[in-house]
Design brief:
The protein is α+β, with helices and mostly antiparallel strands and 159 residues long. The protein has 6 helices and 6 strands.
Length: 159
């Protein structure tokens, strides 16, 4: 599939985008993280833009051109040097990443990720092997319930 080039409109449950091919499609249903190619549900801002975000949805979630770009941004957030997560334990990182103030249960989240990743909640992110980091990202996506929706052609390019 062609990468997303531009966000045309966004509302609850859907987002209309222009692809690099020129086609306009409606991405509906599924989870926010699927509709926006943003498995970290990162908000649109300087960090997301620096890591390839091209727009935002109606709630301010960054939209990435493809799922690979969105996944790389999430990886950089957690395991890159910029955001300060590297010195945190898994439980500390998830308390910051998914705080109680946003309606999350970071302790349950950390316990789930640790169990699925075969690590300890007190393991420090910066000391994890690449294989452990990958397992953490997969477990996080599982916990968050990543689910694909439907892509519908709205318009074709006249090019």
């Amino acid at each position: 599939m062609s990468k997303i080039k531009q966000v045309i409109s966004a509302k609850v449950g859907s987002i209309t985008v222009r692809l690099e091919s020129g086609a306009v499609v409606l991405r509906s249903g599924g989870t926010v993280s699927w509709r926006t190619n943003n498995p970290g549900n990162l908000k649109y801002g300087p960090f997301a833009k620096l890591h390839g975000a091209i727009g935002k949805d109606h709630k301010g979630h960054a939209v990435f051109p493809d799922i690979v770009s969105g996944r790389k941004a999430k990886y950089q957030l957690l395991f890159g040097p910029e955001r300060g997560y590297l010195t945190m334990t898994l439980v500390e990182a998830l308390q910051r990443y998914a705080p109680v103030s946003d309606g999350n249960d970071p302790i349950s989240y950390a316990n789930f990720v640790a169990r699925k990743s075969k690590i300890n909640v007190n393991d420090v992110l910066g000391s994890m092997s690449e294989a452990q980091r990958e397992r953490v990202l997969i477990a996080m996506a599982t916990f968050e319930g990543f689910k694909e929706g439907i892509v519908t052609d709205v318009a074709k390019s006249s090019d």
